[in-house]
Amino acid sequence: MSLTLCQKIIKTHLVSGEMISGQEIGIKIDQTLTQDATGTMAYLQFEAMGKKRVQTELSVAYIDHNTLQTGYENADDHRFIQSVCKKRGVRFSRPGNGICHQVHLERFGIPGKTLIGSDSHTPTGGGIGMLAIGAGGLDVAVAIGGGTYYLTMPDSLKVNLSGKLKNGVSAKDVILEVLRILTVKGGVGKVIEYGGEGIKTLSVPERATITNMGAELGATSSIFPSDEITLEFLKAQGREKDFIPLSADEGAVYSKTIDIDLSALSPLAAMPHMPDNVKKVSEIGAIKIDQVLIGSCTNSSLLDMLKVAKILKGKTVHPDVSLAIAPGSKQVLATLAASGALADMIEAGARILESACGPCIGMGQSPQTDGISLRTFNRNFEGRSGTPSGKIYLVSPETAAFSAIFGVLSDATEYDFDLSVEIPKSFLINDNMIELPADEKEAEDIEVYYGPNIKPLPKAFIITNNLSATAVLKVGDNITTDHIMPAGAKILPFRSNIPYLSKFCFAQNDPNFAENCKKAGSSIVIGGENYGQGSSREHAALVPLYLGVKAVIVKSFARIHKANLINAGIIPLTFINTSDYEGIGEGDSIVFPNIKDEIAQGLPVTLINNTKQKSISLKADFSQRQKDILLSGGLLEYTKGQSEND
Ligand code: MIC
Ligand code: SF4
After folding, report:
1. Is 110 exposed, middle or buried (CB count within 10 Å of its CB: 0-12, 13-18, 19+)?
2. How far apart are the C-alpha atoms of 617 and 631, rounded to whole Å?
3. DSSP code, position 219
4. Is the confidence at residue 646, as pLDDT, over 70?
5. Which residue out of 65, 376, 380, 564 has the highest number of ligand 1 atoms within 8 Å of its CB and is therefore the one to mutate?
């Protein structure tokens, strides 16, 4: 049978289940990555599981999110991660080495391998032909210990590219076009495969820009074939030995195919406040802008930066605009410095930031009140920038750089300016900021460092029949994990301190949420479609667990968040009839008379709304493994139980 690229990789890694779309499968994971904002929790969980050493082919911990270090918290957490890595066999990418996805692509990504990462943009690795998937920290911790990773067998959707991008149009515009067509829900349950003649015109970093933002489609992953362009990139990274050619079989069947003619595309922008709110730059017009930020795991490669430097060379940033640039990795930054391109950026007035996530996760550079900010990033959710009234537009590096000079949103295709740049045949290779772990013998003497910011994990909740709860909050469609558990400079340092974080849970929707949960003791949250889209942060499940949330009932879930809820032991349920959403209001008193038995037997869950005198039937769609996890009180308890039985 002819297989798609995704099916081929799954087939060689399948540990359990059948490759039937929609069914749960288990796959072997070759590589893992973590970043610091989710990593601290992931390694605490790894330690709690009692595993001694890493079991993957390669596991890397990156420090890239929490690098502002406005107090001791982050530095302590970094030391914790560093010491666990040294002891347990994980490579440690030191702060300053770059953004996890960019560095992983440059130094570690291998075509045909599986990678899971505790970050939703892990599919960046699909640009080099990996099956790279974002997951919750606990799933990653299990995989580090050699455990199987479980997911729903995805459908394969094909994006067929033809033609070649015009000067001034770039990979970012390709993915914005896909988002315009498919929307932020369009990728749910799917792996997006890119193919067609057009892919031959796209380098690996350009492909990675496209697969990176597949996260915004809600896709399980996105992937390009591994071909001569992949080989060229690996050679330039001194890693040609990692190359294997890989593509879908002739005649592979896709659930849907979309055709995009690259030569017909023009510069696009995602307007506030959703990545799928896409329009042509020329249609939006020359709106006045206040800020331009260039970087993030979407657009911080050498190619992007060299184009930006070329545009900025000899110019001055518009007096009303603040331009900041964060090159994606030490390799990119060092190459820019060596080539003189960095000086061109600095001379033009760009504020150079360290190679890290920075403003993408609200760590500095919040715009002014009502400020219009153009960013080459991947998310423009309301409030994520740190300024509640900020208006964020997602654009390509070319659009960003021209606009920074002119002070208004500018269409790069309107200028007679050759944007082609020369990429070196071999990159600057120096892995001196990747710390290797100790060998098993030395590791025995290493003490793991626990700073005072590390607080105990929330207690597990064990499901019982006759569960009563209050509906503390009711929200609408497309709620992001940034709503549930915001990030930003003031909160992010506390990712290992769930009690502190709990004060900010759902604060944007209801400033009294935490207090109301405490008053209720046992609560539920009601939501609409695509609940929990965006970040992979499991804090969006652990914090509600700490606050006493027992179940979340919605019209539909985003993939990673649903898995995180199950892992935390919170019951994710969906309305069988979406109109029943109207049947529950905030403050309603709810009882689930037989919830434990119903889950165990795979039956719909009955909810009695005592306030409205109404009974509602809910879908409890769980695999046997998920049922066992929920009934054990979450994945950690379940995994501990399994190791005891070994
Ligand atoms: C994000 O872009 O929101 C993050 C920060 O990278 C998250 C992870 C996190 O919340 O730590 C993600 O995308 O998974
Ligand atoms: Fe970092 Fe932003 Fe990428 Fe998340 S989306 S990994 S915060 S650069």
Report:
1. buried
2. 20
3. B
4. no
5. 65
**Partner residues linked to 31 by β-bridges:** 58, 115
Q: Which residue has the tokens 């649903």?
A: 562
| CA angle, 416 then 417 then 423, to 5° | 150
C-beta of residue 223 within 8 angstroms of C-beta of residue 252: no
The partner residues of 292 in beta bridges, in order of sequence, read 323, 374
Residue-level pLDDT at 642: 79
pLDDT of 645 above 80 = no
Q: Which residue has the tokens 């995704």?
A: 6
Half-sphere exposure of 363 (CA within 13 A, CB side): 21
SS3 assignment, position 426 = coil
**353, 363, 378, best to mutate for ligand 2 pocket (most atoms within 8 Å of CB):** 378
Residues with catalytic roles: 64-65, 119, 379, 535, 537
Per DSSP, what are the bridge partners of residue 468?
591
- pLDDT for 644: 64
Ligand 2: list residues with CB < 6 Å: 65, 99, 119, 121, 296-297, 357, 360-361, 377-378
Domains assigned to the chain: 5-263 (3.30.499.10), 268-414 (3.30.499.10), 467-645 (3.20.19.10)
pLDDT of residue 640: 81
pTM for the full predicted model: 0.97
